[in-house]
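Researcher: Here's a chain I'd like modeled. Treat it as a single chain, no partners, no ligands.
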Amino acid sequence: MIQNDILLKHLSTVFDPELGANIVELGMIKDIQHTDKTVKIKLALTIADCPMRNQIETEINRKLKLLENVENVEITITAMDQKDRTAVMEKARKKARENAQPTNVDPRTRVIAIGSGKGGVGKSTLSANIALGLAKKGFQTGLLDADIWGFSIPRLLGISGRIEANSDKKMIPYTIGNLKVISTGLITSNEDTALMWRGLMLSKALEQFLTDVQWEDLDYLIIDLPPGTGDIQMALSRLLPQAELIVITTPQLMAQKVATRVADMAKRSFIPLLGVIENMSYFESNTGEKFNIFGEGGGEALSDKFGIPLLGKIPIGENTNDIADSGTPLINQENNSVTKVEIEKLINNIAIKLPPIIDETCTGRLAKVFEELSNQ
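Model: Modeled as a single isolated chain. Structure tokens:
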């Protein structure tokens, strides 16, 4: 039997994106029970037919199913009474007065961290292409290169400039269309400079990239994590409670085993696992021949172990890496290689699995009505 305080801990990571407070703090959880691997919740919304209802229910399901003994979640929806709605509005006004947003990343931003158990599995390449692909779809997208030591995002995107600061001493991201990019590679004198920073400095660098950068309004923020389960990964859940994780692995059994540690770290840190990407799934020649040069089954094994979707299987195609090394990302290449096609499918899948948050929430509408009434 899972204790209610553990269930509430997970539920406290489900945020109302407009109010910037979690559903536990807002008093939306009226009752919670756990029996036979099923969690039953009574959820009170400000309005019973709240347009955010499906999104909130999806978030609750995802967060609670991080727990090993939870297989089913049953949610009963009720409407708040006048007393509860007044309390919610008081919390909203208090939040507004305190301006308690800990970072410059809006709570409505979908934060997707991309991690791997070890280096060399194509994590940064996929991070760059996913971010660029979402931006090409018209979404305002940020790309944060949190691989402080091993930064490679500038080269992958063909960026050679340096970022500057505005009059408020906030860093201005390098902009490519709808994509805003921050990397230590855009701060150092050149990409060959070695950064000899210790653990605390690494997590502090991540904090600065989240608090001292002029991100403005973003639909998505893609974070390219360093490999492993170190300081930056642990700081992520503290700094961005809305963050979700995609784990990159290869078909190789060894890579899958190492990636398991990253997925386990996410569960222990209350970071939802959005899914798995199997990179380098196979090599396909220009004539259509396929070769499983790194084995097979790693992505499926990781997906099955944690009960999360396999978002995509990305193959290696001929004549793509040389062009990518010159600074042309895979999805910007003219040739519709098998790699490019599968990455585009992956980006579509991510946008479907985690769509942008609706700007006009039910609580936001209610807040506006209360504000109008108070001014009369």
